[in-house]
Amino acid sequence: MDNITTGYLNRAEIWLFVTTLIYFMMNGAQVFETLIFVPKWTGNAPAHFNLLLDGRGTSLKNFWIVFHSLHELTFLLAIIFCWKISFARNWLLLLFAVHFAVRVWTIGYFAPNIMDFQKMATAPVAVKDLAARVARWQTLNYFRVAIFIAVSFGLIPLCYKILQLRP
């Protein structure tokens, strides 16, 4: 760490703070969605599945694609610009691995189920154990959001420690 310049440290701080800020903004949107929107469409399934439809409901697909893409770009930039600071690099890689695992879970479980629920809104089909499936999705979503929040809070001590490197 002896060869870290002030300019390098400035860039590391900026990208770490940007990704932390965006992560907290993303968490705010997730908490809002989890506490306000999800109970609306899960509360009377499948009658309220129309809330999930593009153009006729509150589909948040595009919002989340853009937000996650922006956040993951800034997260990768934080890793790149903190690379020479070993404790920051290692901590960011660990947090990114957790984040990435939850994103894989989202793409593998949450997104396909939402798409199925959207299909049921346009062409109602009798589905065995639909209430249990919706309740499981909602419960697992609480865990998913909690993990994302934990990752964002994991960035705070790192921000503090980076600030301590200033001469």
Provide structural commentary.
The protein has 167 residues and is mostly helical. The chain has helices spanning 6-42, 61-81, 86-122, 130-163. The longest helix is centred in the N-terminal third of the chain and has 37 residues, at 6-42. The radius of gyration is 19 Å and the shape is elongated. The mean pLDDT is 91.
Most strands sheet: none
- Uncertain segments are none
User: Quick one: how many beta strands?
Assistant: 0
Order of helices and strands: HHHH
Count of helical segments?
4
N→C terminal distance: 13 Å
Class computed from helices, strands and strand pairing: mainly alpha
Query: Beta-strand percentage?
Result: under 5%
Write the layout of secondary structure elements.
Elements: H1 6-42, H2 61-81, H3 86-122, H4 130-163
Helix pairs in contact: 1-2, 1-4, 2-3, 3-4
Q: What are the defining features of this structure?
A:
elongated; 4 helices; 167 residues; mainly alpha
Short characterization:
The protein has 167 residues and is an all-alpha fold. It is built from four helices and no strands.
